[in-house]
Amino acid sequence: SRRRRFSDCGGMERSPYDRQRRLLFIHGAYNGRMKLLGTFVLALSLGLIGTASAQVGASITQWGALPALSQFKRTGNTLQAPDGSRIALTVQRGMVTAAQVTLPSGDAVRAGQLLGALTGYGDGLGQAYTAYLQDPKNQPALLKGNSLNAQQFVVDNKLTPPSSGNTNPRLTFTVTLPEVPSSAFERTKNAIGTVSAPVVLRLYSDFQCPYCEQFETQTWPGLQKTLGKQLGTTVRYEFHQFPLEQIHPNARPAAEASECAAQQSKFWEFHDALFEPQQWQQWVKSANPNLDFISYASDLKLNVAAFKNCLAERGGKAAVDAGLVNGQQVGVNGTPTLFVNGFKVPNPHDISAIMQMINTVKGK
Q: Has residue 354 got a pLDDT over 50?
């Protein structure tokens, strides 16, 4: 079945595809690569809320504390409303990985409200979903059953026509946080920890992205402290290149420079130099950032002549290109994007949510 992608802008820097109002791609089922089937235009506003309040991907203990869910009474992993609406949860070691919603009335407005609550994208995504459900052109696909891509989530839909026992069409949709297979991710040497670690944190990042700088200076130190001795043993941390060069002109030069440093086994030292707050403010605005990069290389005791030669010959280009291709293959459309094994973290700045995912995949 075909999947349409609903996209929006939250607490991350979006690729140019998501910064327009907006050309979105229809994708087939994941088969190790994203398979382009056609195009679809969906207008969404750019100032949408992020996914800090997402219910799918959250701990079951945090579940349901939203106005859109106030009418539902929870019994175990099932929520029931007085009008017969029902939400059935799939829970893995304390984390909600899917929610199946059944609306006997087929109310498209309520469906949009619930999708917005379940994903954390609120009305920005919910209203678009309502419009999609109300469009007569989409009725044949909904009756047959189809799937939509909504950022990191997949939404499976099925509309059942009215019957003698139910005068209204019944809508069932399932919101799932899918898992990308580990074989789909590109191998990288820019990592902390053993390749045999049962948990892998995969960060797709852009050195010039302000949300990435926020992750590095605010989120990552706290996450490191929380992980403690797990980091490097049971948890591996990988950095994948994903420079949004069309909106960040110095992002690719920085990425390639970091790969030149990696050739001298100094990736992480150079990475830290790029994200050091004062230095970051300087090189992101520079008309010739290579001069800054050479200065950092000298400070880090790299072979400066070899580093300069690498920059001149673009010795880091192939690694950066590979990161961009792989990121697109696994569904990265903005930075920072963080995966815990194959699960895309709804909010990469939420340490408690990241740890919940880590505990979930460790329990598999």
A: yes
